[in-house]
């Protein structure tokens, strides 16, 4: 069920079984915008059904926070235009060439190109691996970019993170909301641990924003204090 964050922002909670992330909807006066495309066509359809139940239109834009499958495999099924960073699109074009059989998935896992957790969740989400469709975004963001939805603005900015080098952050100044996706998590495609320098840089980047609500990919939104306390606690563990 769709939940309300502010008068302008709503979200569909994630689902742990198949690692579905939280999907967000920003309702402007003239246009609307979704954050992340989910992990399948079925995920998108569930999101749109909930929007329709609330009387909301489908999004004009869908912004992708990073390339990982759970945030992107629904891109081919979304309404409107998709937006991602240049680095995200580079990775998605690479993933477009992957073959989706259990054997190929095992091979990518063994080579380190993909990871076991993702493969396990993909097999739960997809009864038929042939249903997987990977596409790049239609619009690429190279630098800080603002979108006026009417009465509310979304500022997009690509920036490195501890989770993935292609992270795209989204700031909503009228609501003092900062969307970070999975950016403050460890890099599971690396050694599964935090890199101290990347974490230090990420913390400094996040703290420069004037936000009161911190939106993450796989859990409920946090307060500024909760977010900064978490980042500081992870840094202390590395010292």
- Number of structural units classed as domains: 1
Query: What name does the CATH topology carry?
Result: Metallo-beta-lactamase, Chain A
The CATH class turns out to be Alpha Beta
Structural class: alpha/beta
Spans where pLDDT lies below 50 across 5 or more residues: none
Mean pLDDT score? 97
Report the portion of residues in β strands: 15-25%
Q: Portion of residues in helices?
A: 25-40%
Assigned CATH architecture: 4-Layer Sandwich
Strand order of the largest sheet: 1-2-3-4-5-6-7
C-alpha-based Rg, rounded: 17 Å
Name of the CATH homologous superfamily: Ribonuclease Z/Hydroxyacylglutathione hydrolase-like
Specify the overall morphology: globular
Listing every helix as H and every strand as E from the N terminus to the C terminus, the arrangement reads EEEEHEHEHHHEEEEEHEEH
Q: Write down how many β-strands occur, each being a DSSP E stretch of 2 or more residues.
A: 13
* Sheet of most strands: 7 strands, mixed
Protein name: MBL fold metallo-hydrolase
Domain Metallo-beta-lactamase: 20-218
InterPro entries: Metallo-B-lactamas (IPR001279), NDM-1-like (IPR050855), RibonucZ/Hydroxyglut_hydro (IPR036866)
Organism: Caproiciproducens galactitolivorans
How do the strands and helices of this protein lay out in sequence?
Layout: E1 3-4, E2 9-12, E3 23-27, E4 32-35, H1 41-54, E5 61-63, H2 69-72, E6 81-85, H3 86-95, H4 102-111, H5 116-125, E7 139-141, E8 145-148, E9 153-158, E10 168-172, E11 177-181, H6 196-207, E12 213-216, E13 222-223, H7 224-238
Parallel strand pairs: 4-5, 5-6, 6-7, 11-12
Antiparallel strand pairs: 1-2, 2-3, 3-4, 8-9, 9-10, 10-11, 12-13
InterPro entries: Metallo-B-lactamas, NDM-1-like, RibonucZ/Hydroxyglut_hydro
Pfam families: Lactamase_B
Protein name: MBL fold metallo-hydrolase
């Amino acid at each position: 069920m769709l939940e309300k964050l502010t008068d302008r922002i709503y979200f569909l909670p994630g689902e742990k079984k198949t690692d579905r992330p939280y999907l967000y909807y920003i309702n402007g006066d003239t246009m609307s915008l979704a954050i992340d495309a989910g992990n399948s066509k079925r995920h998108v359809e569930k999101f749109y059904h909930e929007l329709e139940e609330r009387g909301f239109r489908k999004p004009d834009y869908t912004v992708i926070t990073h390339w990982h499958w759970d945030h992107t495999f629904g891109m081919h099924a979304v309404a409107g235009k998709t937006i991602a960073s240049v680095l995200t699109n580079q990775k998605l074009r690479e993933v477009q060439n992957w073959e989706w059989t259990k054997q190929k998935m095992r091979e990518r896992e063994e080579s380190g190109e993909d990871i076991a957790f993702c493969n396990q969740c993909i097999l739960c989400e997809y009864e038929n691996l042939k249903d997987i469709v990977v596409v790049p975004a239609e619009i690429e963001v190279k630098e800080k970019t603002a979108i006026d939805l009417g009465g509310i603005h979304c500022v997009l900015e690509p920036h490195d993170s501890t989770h993935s080098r292609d992270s795209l952050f989204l700031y909503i100044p009228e609501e003092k909301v900062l969307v970070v996706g999975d950016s403050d998590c460890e890099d599971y495609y690396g050694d599964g641990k935090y890199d101290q320098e990347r974490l230090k840089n990420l913390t400094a980047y996040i703290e420069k924003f004037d936000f009161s609500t911190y939106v993450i990919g796989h859990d409920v939104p946090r307060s500024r204090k909760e977010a900064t306390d978490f980042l500081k606690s992870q840094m202390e563990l590395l010292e």
